[in-house]
Amino acid sequence: MSLSEMQDPLYRLNEPAVIADVIDGEAVIMNLERGSYYGLDQIGADIWQMILTGRTFDEIATTIAQHFGVERERVASDVNALAAQMIEEKLIVPDPAGEERVREPHQITVTVYATPVLTVYSDMKDLLALDPPMPGLEPASNA
Amino acid sequence: MTIADLAWKSQVVDRPDVRDGGFAEMRAAMAAAVAARPEQVHAVSMTFAGRPVRLEVAGNALAANVMSAFAHLIDRDAPDRPATSSIAFWDCTASGVRWPNLAEDGEWVAQGEGWRISLHGGGRYLREARTNSLIHLDRSSGAVIAAFRDAAQLTLADRARPLQRMMSQICAAFGIQDIHAGLVSRGGRGVLIVGGSGRGKTTTTLDCLDGGLDFLGDDSVGLGEPEEGGFVGHSLYNSARVHPGQLRRWPRLADHWRPPGPGDDKALLIPARPFPERVVRTARIVAILVPVIAGGRFDAVPTSPRAAFTALVHDSKDNRRFGMSRNEFLRLTALTRTIPCFRCELDLDPARVAAGISHLIESLAP
């Protein structure tokens, strides 16, 4: 899927199935329903945070290319591939109401550009699939 | 304990009419087992996750097996201390009391070969049925009632970690989080040893025990957040399990291993037997260490919180847990964000591992 084929310009975190946090510039993500765990390197975490703060993939590619002085086509290809992987893994979903979100500023933390990497830890998947999250532990699921 | 954790408790406790999935029948069967063979009943007070708990075991052989795993938590000076919760076990063979024949129902069910877990009573009661055991947990109080078909059938894994999979939910009821990690300490300051199966957690923790540090667990410990801030590790089990080929690494422990029997792949050590003073209940966590089996010289170097988090969330086949909840995920990210994270190569000399971790503890600000 290319950027132009992604009809939905804005995406959001696939809550409540997915939870994520950024630790020391890197992101850790977990799909609580699938039992899948993911790690994002620093540039990937920057892209992740820009997606979640209401930027289109196109905007993100432009911002990063300008920030690092890197060829936009290359960055767009990287962002496209990463976003497609995030969508495929159901980490993010289209956000039709995304235009109404407040776009908080994001400061890029990496000093050198490298192709972002989403690491999928699938070795736990079978184990966690056997042991799904216990219902009733979260206020939302008790409501 | 967080407000979110309290939310589900208040909801389920306020529903006295809910079905308990057989918890009351289990309680009655436990009482019958106690009455059947009172001379084989062993009752003690212990401190679990900082709370007073009554531990009662009906059956001499069962008591000999499971109580050793909790021996370091038993308060021998205060046997009749009022308890806020209870853990009760009975041996069906020794007592002649079978567990109740309960319907295979449940509001939520997870099952696999030889095991079935179900939720009852609006989320309050959790039941785990296995071929040779039936365990019930009241999640609102942390009370546990467990029946074992025959103590003679317990594997070393059962003896090392009674209640295994249910332990994560028992810990949750006590406001702590069962995590897949080893924990050692010196002077009350602990180092979490994290990593997937076969990555050196047990080797590192036993190197430290052998080298004079305190032991809290080799594979499973309780993570708590005290009101004063930071993180505390709670010892859950006085046990360690190692593949027989590794035992020669610790000559001083040679006489204390229980060799694996049928159905076991690892030998069992009860650390309090050789070193009773070195098995402690709690420690404040000051570092997280990710060992790497490389045979180099021990040297703890900083690593990224994400690397430590990744090592921490890997599970093991012999210690399966329930999938992580949102609060548990956030607790672990907070842990790795605030506690210094290191990686190290495992040294061929266990004394250098113990010395290196002692030095690491001393080097970190109090």
Write the layout of secondary structure elements.
The complex is a heterodimer of chains A (143) and B (366).
Chain A: E1 11-13, E2 18-23, E3 26-31, E4 36-40, H1 42-52, H2 57-68, H3 72-88, E5 92-94, E6 118-121, H4 125-130, H5 139-142
Antiparallel strand pairs in A: 1-5, 2-3, 3-4, 4-6
Helix pairs in contact in A: 2-3
Chain B: H1 3-13, H2 23-36, E1 41-48, E2 51-58, H3 60-69, E3 85-91, H4 92-95, E4 108-112, E5 115-120, E6 125-130, E7 133-138, E8 143-148, H5 156-160, H6 167-173, E9 177-179, E10 181-186, E11 189-194, H7 201-210, E12 214-217, E13 221-224, E14 232-235, E15 240-242, E16 257-258, E17 267-269, E18 282-292, E19 301-302, H8 305-313, H9 326-338, E20 341-345, H10 350-363
Parallel strand pairs in B: 2-3, 3-8, 11-18, 18-20
Antiparallel strand pairs in B: 1-2, 4-5, 5-6, 6-7, 7-8, 9-13, 10-11, 10-12, 13-14, 14-18, 15-17, 16-17, 19-20
Descriptive keywords:
heterodimer; A: 143 residues; alpha+beta; 4-stranded antiparallel β-sheet; two-stranded antiparallel sheet; 6 strands; 35% helix; 19% strand; globular; B: 366 residues; 9-stranded mixed β-sheet; 8-stranded mixed β-sheet; 10 helices; disordered N terminus
Can you describe this structure?
- The complex is a heterodimer of chains A (143) and B (366).
- Chain A is built from 5 helices and 6 strands, in the order ββββαααββαα.
- Chain A has 143 residues and is α+β, with helices and mostly antiparallel strands.
- In chain A, a hairpin with a 4-residue loop joins strand 3 and strand 4.
- In chain B, 27% of the residues lie in helices and 29% in strands.
- In chain B, the strands form 3 sheets. In chain B, strands 9, 10, 11, 12, 13, 14, 18, 19 and 20 form a 9-stranded mixed beta sheet that branches. Chain B has an 8-stranded mixed beta sheet with strand order 1-2-3-8-7-6-5-4, sandwiched between helices. Chain B has a 3-stranded antiparallel beta sheet with strand order 15-17-16.
- At the A-B interface, strand 2, strand 3 and helix 4 of A face helix 1, strand 4, helix 8 and helix 9 of B.
